[in-house]
Amino acid sequence: xxxxxxxxxxxxxxxxxxxxxxxxxxxxxxxxxxxxxxxxxxxxxxxxxxxxxxxxxxxxxxxxxxxxxxxxxxxxxxxxxxxxxxxxxxxxxxxxxxxxxxxxxxxxxxxxxxxxxxxxxxxxxxxxxxxxxxxxxxxxxxxxxxxxxxxxxxxxxxx
Amino acid sequence: xxxxxxxxxxxxxxxxxxxxxxxxxxxxxxxxxxxxxxxxxxxxxxxxxxxxxxxxxxxxxxxxxxxxxxxxxxxxxxxxxxxxxxxxxxxxxxxxxxxxxxxxxxxxxxxxxxxxxxxxxxxxxxxxxxxxxxxxxxxxxxxxxxxxxxxxxxxxxxxxxxxxxxxxxxxxxxxxxxxxx
Lengths: 159, 181
Known about the structure:
The structure holds two protein chains of two kinds.
Chain A: H1 3-30, E1 44-47, H2 48-57, H3 59-66, E2 75-87, E3 93-97, E4 106-109, E5 126-135, E6 138-140, E7 145-147, E8 149-156
Parallel strand pairs in A: 1-2, 4-8
Antiparallel strand pairs in A: 2-3, 2-5, 3-4, 5-8, 6-7
Helix pairs in contact in A: 2-3
Chain B: H1 2-20, E1 23-25, E2 28-35, E3 40-45, E4 49-53, E5 58-64, E6 69-70, H2 73-80, E7 92-99, E8 111-123, E9 126-139, E10 142-152, H3 164-168, E11 172-180
Antiparallel strand pairs in B: 1-4, 2-3, 2-11, 3-6, 4-5, 5-7, 7-8, 8-9, 9-10, 10-11
């Protein structure tokens, strides 16, 4: 085998390996599973009132701080008083943390996996939930009401 | 006897007043469905806030865009990105409408009614007039709404110019709405 031929063969092998890696990465990217919010590090911890007030003071600034361009927004731990417990159309538990004197609260949606962790929670309890922020609190003039901060993929944080 | 009669009158008045007032809900479901020969893409959102006012036919929905969940994380990232819906800049979509044929919808009587909702839809910061049919069901004093309509993405300046998303996402997507008030 001449040196030239040998080089050519090495090049082919390298190219082949390169293509294989590229295809594997592309497949991984394409099938990448949804972000696991609960195993993601918490970015901020607040009382429900604190984040609500931050949004009602300057929503644009708060959106800049918490929302991500690709939807992988900040992971928050929110402590507050349970004002309401309900269920959405997808049978996920929804817990509203809101102080009686506040205009809005934080609405936390749980998942099929974490629903059962809300079993013993009652209205009036003080709890901490961890989840990803989806939207902020605001007064909506068309709804004629305050909208809550919404967090999703929630779970209870035991302290 | 007189007292119980008064109680009944009071109760009926209260329940009628309750029906005539604006009702808000977070029990909602929005679904996007896109179909192309390449693939079907579906996204679900259970976090919208809706309101309906039987007295004047006002219908409002406020939809937090980042709450749309896709099967694949990459699709969700595309959806939220600047090239598509830019949900960081425009975190909410909004529908404000009125039931045009309010005389055909009896909120005080159980039944299924077809309502013509006329109004404005704002997605990606772009507002367009809309006119869609919705089914309103009244049962035991409770109101629910369901609708299915198509939106053309280009109308809302949502378009991928090239690459995989441009061939795999339909130009017109189907939106399904349901809400229990």
